[in-house]
Amino acid sequence: MKIIKGHIFGAQILGRKPCELLIRHNQVQLNFRDNEHAPEYCCEVEDLDVYPSAEIGEGRIILPDGRTFASDDFDSLERLQSVSFWKRLTQFDRGRNGLLKILILTIALLFIAYKIILPMFVSMGMAATPDSFLHSMDEGILKSLDAEYLDQSDITAAREAEVNQIFNRLVAARKTLERGHLSNREFVYQLKFRSANILGPNAFAMPGGTIIITDELIEDFPDDAVIAAVLAHEIGHVEYRHGLRQIYRNLGFWTLTKIAVGGSGSIFEGALFSGTQLITLSYSRRHELQSDDYSFLLVQEAGFEANGLIEFFENIPKEDFEMKGLNWLSTHPMSSRRIRNIQDKIEALE
Fold first, then answer.
1. Residues 300-323: pLDDT tens digits?
2. In angstroms, rounded to a whole number, what is the distance separating the alpha carbons of residues 227 and 299?
3. Residues near 35 by beta carbon (within 8 Å), at least 6 away in sequence
4. Torsions phi, psi of 71, nearest 5?
5. Which of 37, 76, 125, 337 is 20 to 30 Å from the Cα of 114, by its Cα?
6. What's the domain count of the chain?
7. Better pLDDT: 282 or 80
8. What DSSP assignment string belongs to 322-333?
9. In angstroms, rounded to a whole number, what is the distance separating the alpha carbons of residues 52 and 72?
């Protein structure tokens, strides 16, 4: 126990009143040396602002309620200042450690959510999605794309019929391929022709089997083998359900964000029927390689040459990769590994 004698003033106290500062077990108590005031608990030691300067003839302690305790016991005030400082430092360190623990726990929970909960959510969502809803999803996405990015096709009726014939051969050939671990669902495939200068030579698949091919792709690559390879690649995304999987992954993140920050509007409508969502969808490297492999098998099954994707990747203009803020690579990341993968398969056939 430590007693420091002095005076207290300020905060509705008239004049200076003699009192003692009693410090016991880190607690501070005021004992007034008169019969008008009862002893009172004041605060913890770390809550004191201690100024032991002797320049004005006395040191001062500022209490949490604004009152000032003055004393000429400079040695005691200096020791109290040191104790108060270390108490605050310890308290800060404890708080910092607490924040660090919370941060580590948050990261751990996010990791668990990403590795376990999110995949479960995706699997459950995909299993619970009926075929009729996939068709509605395709219609909603196409409507959104037509409103934002696409124009009516200018391809001649004769050329459109030729491309449709290529597409129909691929759709028919997929039924004779070994299904393996592919989806057992029978998708309703349909090909839509659109002009899309903003997207360049492109094709992309919707979850239910609707595939869009741009005029720019048909015009820049007249070789049927190239068109067949690109369309077969998109059919692969549908068969493996890559698009639906990625949409549900995004939906999981969007749902958590909505819960965290609030907001209005339909999460499902924004995630499942957004055209922007489709054209900026990023497939994983594994998904792209899976679709490349599927394309390689499907084009041969349909009677086309196997080098169509290589010709496409090697000849597409670089400026078509990045157009008006939409990264073509986000949906079709090209790499030397993908080209080498197809070349290795072709060499294995020889």
1. 999 999 999 999 988 876 555 444
2. 10
3. none
4. -155, 150
5. 337
6. 2
7. 80
8. EETTEEGGGTS-
9. 8
